[in-house]
Amino acid sequence: MLQNKSRTTSDLCNLFSSSVSEFIPGYIPYYLADLVPMQKYKNSEKQIQCTVVATSERTLDVILKTPKMTLYELGVNLPCSLPIESMTDLSPFDDNIVNKIHYLFSEVNAVKCSMVGDTLTTFNNRKYPVNMPLSCYQVLAQDCTIELKFMVLLKKDHASEQNHINVKISDIDVDLYPEDNDVIVKVNGMEISKDNLPYQDPSGSIKIKQKGEGVSLYAPSYGLQNVYFDKHSWKIKVVDWMKGQTCGLCGKADGENRQEYRTPSGRLTKSSVSFAHSWVLPSDCCRDASECLMKLESVKLDKQVIVDDRESKCYSVEPVLRCLPGCLPVRTTPITIGFHCLPVDSNLNRSEGLSSIYEKSVDLMEKAEAHVACRCSEQCI
Questions:
Q1: Which of 86, 253, 339, 375 is the most exposed place for a label (fewest CB within 10 A)?
Q2: What is the side-by-side order of every strand in the sheet holding 327-343?
Q3: How far apart are CA 296 and CA 39, in angstroms?
Q4: Mapping DSSP to helix (H, G, I), strand (E, B) and coil, where does residue 31 land?
Q5: What pLDDT digit, counting tens, does each position of 243-284 carry?
Q6: Residue 276 near residue 131 (C-beta atoms within 8 A)
Q7: 203 class by beta-carbon count within 10 Å (0-12 exposed, 13-18 middle, 19+ buried)
């Protein structure tokens, strides 16, 4: 019968310390002073056993056995929630218990960005719809320091309109994409079959393994806790020390979601569509219909407006996705963006506008049309 005897903290500390010190001279386990002794059992001689059970995401049961007594403390409250869903995969790299515990607690502090359907949730937990252009990669998340330790790209395939993920780490290029009911994994262009998973690169710092219906890539030493991908969704987690140093569609991971829509130029836009399109990696020519057939450019407002009592022409200060020359849009989406206006007799020409207009102030907000799918003729240039 277990007995929860009432003792002072000092009594428990002295009692336990003297018991343990018989086997570990000089050892004072001050942090276990609150453990309550059980009735004596015949525990193993010359052996100390500690059992910790996670009874919930925020509580633990602790049982400590010494040769002379068993101590316990039930319902120990934790300062943070344990990632229970990750308990079966504490560390993807080895069986070292220290590494497993380190990985577990890094999961607690990791920030997550995910996408289900067409709704993206940023590292800062802001949700917005994404109307993705076809065949063009967009930057989901990257290390925006000068080290550029990783980059995660996403594109929607032109033929299937399914998501493809590309992860760039050091000299390793990993592609993840659906095919039938499976997820295909390619490392530097070479397909890795299911039978060869888990896969670990020669340096031992990157690992890819099956997880549920999808595949997870782990590279915590590069700042990527993991990248998960399946047929219907994806999820990116970055380690705690990358907070505030990321950029892309997933944001800065700094806890500040009022400035979430920041473009690569540093401009803050109010449009989620304009923000998403600003992170597209555009093309400059169309060699293949499966490649990106769009580029980013400043567009001129179709109508003339009166600004400061003068008839003016206006150019967008935010880049807009447009089909390449020789290509026609087959799908568009409206966006509301900022325009900078100049007198109609201004000599601002097209090339000058493209090079300097993005630094100009916003005079008015107007709708424009962004292209999200294009078709090119043989005369495409």
A1: 375
A2: 305-307, 310-316, 327-343, 364-376
A3: 74
A4: helix
A5: 889 999 999 888 877 777 888 888 788 788 888 888 998 776
A6: yes
A7: exposed
Rg of the chain's alpha carbons, rounded to an integer?
29
What residues does 36 pair with on adjacent strands?
A: 72
Residues 140-169 pLDDT 10s: 999 999 899 999 999 988 777 788 999 999
Contact present, 231 and 222 (Cβ < 8 Å):
no
- H/E stretch holding 9 reads helix 9-21
Q: What is the pLDDT of residue 176?
A: 94
* Number of Cα atoms under 13 Å in the Cβ half of residue 335: 31
> How does residue 203 score in pLDDT terms, banded at 50, 70 and 90?
confident
What is the DSSP track for 262-324? B-TTS-B-S-HHHHHHHTB---SS-S-TTS--EEEE--B-SS-EEETTEEEEEEESS-EEEEP
The type of residue at 251 is: G
Q: Tokens 């316990």 belong to which residue?
A: 72
- Alpha-carbon distance of 341 to 336, in angstroms, equals 16
Q: Residue 227 in contact with residue 217, Cβ under 8 Å? A: yes
| Whole-angstrom distance, CA of residue 95 vs CA of residue 38 | 33
Q: What is the pTM of this model?
A: 0.71
Comparing 152 with 46, which gets the higher pLDDT?
A: 152
Query: How far apart (Å, rounded) are the C-alpha atoms in residues 319 and 339?
Result: 11
Which residues touch 285 (CB under 8 Å, ≥6 apart)?
A: 324, 380, 381
pLDDT at residue 206 above 80? yes
What does the alpha-carbon distance between residue 381 and residue 379 come to, in Å, rounded to a whole number? Answer: 6
Task: Report helix, strand or coil for 49.
Answer: strand
Supply the DSSP string of 172-233, one letter for each residue.
Answer: EEEEEEEETTEEEEEETTEEE-GGG-SEE-TTSS-EEEEETTEEEEEEGGGTEEEEEE-SSE
pLDDT of residue 10: 43
61 touches 53 (CB < 8 A)? yes
Report how far residue 133's alpha carbon sits from residue 274's, in angstroms, rounded to the nearest whole number: 12
CB 345 within 8 A of CB 322: no
Distance CA 148, CA 142 (A): 7
Interacting residues of 176 by C-beta distance below 8 A, sequence separation 6+: 164, 165, 166, 167, 183, 184, 185, 215, 217, 227, 229
